[in-house]
Amino acid sequence: MVVAVVLETWPKASERFISRELAALAGLGLDLRIFAVARGPEGLLAEEPFAGLAGRVSWLPGALSARGLAGGAGAAAASPGRMLRLLPAAVSGELRDPVRLARLLPRMALAPALAREVRRAGAELLWAHFASLPGAVGWMASRLAGVPFALSVHAWDVFVNRALVAAQLEEARLVTACSRAAMEFLQRTYGPSAAKVELCYHGVPLPEGNDRHPALGLRLAEKQPPAVPKAESPKPQARPGCPFRVLAIGRLVPKKGFAYLIEAAALARGGFEVELAGDGPERGALEALAAARGLTERVTFSGEVGAVELSAACARADAVCAPSVVAPDGDRDGVPNSLLEAMACGLPAVAADAGGLGEAVEDGRSGLLVPPADPPALAAAIGRIAGDPPLAARLASGAGELLRERFSLERNVRRLAGLLAAAAGRDA
């Protein structure tokens, strides 16, 4: 089965989980043809899972390039009726919002080129990741190409974006959400057209008794314990005799709530260190906050990390924390794959109860869950884990069980393959 996959940028470090899922689907025999709007950093092309997908990827021409104009003209000539019907169908839902309408028009110019590539590939299904640019372009291209449309939604594209989401939900034969929080938000916001949404977690690879990082496929330091430790065999402290070290991973943006973790470090009795693995527009403000709280020596900013660096960060940490909040614009986390990867390394987790975090961190079972935007609660929860090794072991063991039950990459990918086949009109 040939499936055309639409992404905004490829390769993209923060969307490694999508490419990992695509690689697993290809391993099951799906003939994936990946079309990206923009080209990501060349350096990522040598890393897995990007390297294994390189032969399947092409980038769409610019809408005003010679190739893009030729594609648009060819699409118009091949299906003039569809082109004429597309404009009112796309614009009608955006007329009351000039800003969204202005953003929509350039996207429409990409659709004919994508439609032409989809037809050339002989695709039986056009599948877009994110209900923002890829979803809008994919929805329009599916109409032009006469190919069924499928959509996978994530976080920002659900909680903040509104452009053409209703149209995509109505048109799609399949819609998957990677968190229950996103699925239920769609159902509350869009009503019957979102009733078709399927919950399908991305998941992480889980180990089979080997010494490899279960999420990243990389060898860890010798001191790294099994990825799913047993309660009676807790992960040893990464640096015995040194302060307890908490790892937090993600873009430095408001929804991640990293300022509250820094405030918690300032409040904690006995103190703990923080490593922030990621980069983003809030870095300067967070560095200033750490300095103002006298934590310059205890808060480390690692910048954006690749797979090797993330593996090393997990190996030197004693716990992982996701202090997320609902941002002022409504954005929030789904189930961050970086959190799952750290939990799969055996790190006990502390998370704020925002977005879909409670789907991975069940309080008292797979981690400790605290109210969002609450530094004292964060400090207390981290202090409990730091001061109670048996508790840390029980939480790590419970996380292993939950990962196997809910976040197995193999199990979730097999289910997704069946859903895609059904959407294309094939037997699973």
Please give a quick description of this structure.
By secondary structure, this protein is an alpha/beta fold. Helices cover 43% and strands 15% of the residues. The longest helix is centred in the N-terminal third of the chain and has 24 residues, at 98-121.
Tell me the series of helices and strands, N- to C-terminal. Answer: EHEHEHHHEHEHHEHEEHEHEHEHEEHHH
Strand content: 5-15%
Low-confidence stretches: 209-233
CATH superfamily of the largest domain: Glycogen Phosphorylase B
Task: Look at the structure and give the mean pLDDT.
Answer: 86
Cα distance spanning the termini: 11 Å
Structural class comes to alpha/beta
Describe the structure.
By secondary structure, this protein is an alpha/beta fold. The protein folds into two domains: 2-203 and 408-423, Glycogen Phosphorylase B (Rossmann fold, 3-Layer(aba) Sandwich); 245-406, Glycogen Phosphorylase B (Rossmann fold, 3-Layer(aba) Sandwich). The chain has 16 helices and 13 strands. The strands form two sheets. It has a seven-stranded parallel sheet, sandwiched between helices. Strands 10-9-8-11-12-13 form a six-stranded parallel sheet, sandwiched between helices. Helix 13 links the parallel strand 11 (319-322) and strand 12 (349-352). The longest helix is centred in the first third of the chain and has 24 residues, at 98-121. The chain starts with a strand and ends in a 5-residue tail after the last helix. Mean pLDDT is 86; it is low at 209-233.
